[in-house]
Amino acid sequence: MNATPGFFIQAAYFAAAVMFIYGLKAMSSPVTARRGILWAGVAMLVAIVVTFFHPQVTGNYLLMLIAIAIGSGATWWTARRVAMTDMPQMIAVYNGMGGGAAAAIAAVELSKSAAGVIDMDLTTLVLAVLGGIIGAVAFTGSMIAFAKLQGWMRRTWRFNHQQTVNLAVFVLVLLLGTVLVASGASVAVLIPFFILALAAGVLMTIPIGGADMPVVISLYNALTGLAVGFEGYVLQNPAMMIAGIVVGAAGSLLTLLMARAMNRSLGNVLFAGFGKTDEDATSDDVAGEMKSIDATDAAIQLAYAESVIIVPGYGMAVAQAQHKVWELTELLTERGTKVSFAIHPVAGRMPGHMNVLLAEAGVPYDMIFDLEDINAQFPNTDVAVVIGANDVVNPAARKDTSSPIYGMPILDADQARNCIVVKRGQGTGFSGIENLLFFEDNTRMLYGDAQKVAQQLVSGIKSLG
User: Fold this and answer.
1) Is 119 a catalytic residue?
2) Domain shared by 44 and 6, yes or no
3) I need a labelling partner for 86 at 20 to 30 A (CA). Which of 8, 161, 297, 453 fits?
4) For 250-278, what is each residue's pLDDT tens digit?
5) 447 domain residue, yes or no
6) How many domains does the chain have?
């Protein structure tokens, strides 16, 4: 039996899809994440090369090569230069590009259908429209998430009757999508359809507070995967279908897990708002006062502690202090202190942010514990060291029924015998909610840049001999 070129092309796409799945699975563990990224990269390379030999690709090779060169060069340059603290922004941008690409595919294919170049059946037309909506929302939503994380726009942006306006835009998008499906694609409907879909992503994201950004990034990742899967069906490309469905499913599961970690529904994240606006972020009335401690006294307290739990947060990431924190940990371990790291599911600006930083510093995986595994240890811990974390250790989640984070599972750092909070100043966190932990009787504030403070603690412990 003679094998046709089409058979080899489909086999290559299938192999690429298998490598995507394997790579995604490997990324679920820090131990195998690097291997997973390499496998996914090889899969993408295979899919791109094979596309040049697809029977439907009969021209524009030079444009394809130019686009690949520009895209690859830009991503290589930015990935090499991006700071670890800016990784969430980069992920938001790259994820948005995936959604935008899916929306662009939908626009091109629907335009061809409107011009009579191709004839879409009902299923293909429906999936093209749905992929266009989802991809457009993921694109502009991710861009807004990037702008917020980068500090280019306010963390929350709300106006009167906002939800009503959002609902009206979504209804119009669905109505225009229905018209496209019912009467066939037409340019007169396509243009407002995509404009409103892009606007829907903006409107949906601007009121969402900074503390919800990990959930939002995960959600848009899921939407991008779903849009790519739909458009893969439109193009009859198995690699796109399988990769998109797998990414969409994984992103959806992660989004639900992240929302559950905050004890909130996804609808509440998207439509209820979180925390305070920039104007009233410091209006909380909290009993008590913050009590400071200097690095020398903190070093003595740590040096003679039998057990220490370190809670890393975004402040550690900003200061790039993970290597000094690991040096501190090694010193304490040599003195016989039991040291553990406690990670909240939504610590930092994206899922797994703290795990990546600690892995980069060489922290062994068996020293890192999730919330469910570490919380019971806090009451028997001599010192809890909170480095730049805010909402994930805020006792208001247990004590203040009026707090926006009430009911959210937190790391119980306040229940340790002593708590040292490393923080640059007395301001609130990214969500704008005052942290009751800072005012607890057993808490002492150690002010300063996390990396410099960690170095001071290292020097202080070494001076004790």
Assistant:
1) no
2) yes
3) 453
4) 888 888 888 877 777 777 777 665 444 44
5) yes
6) 3
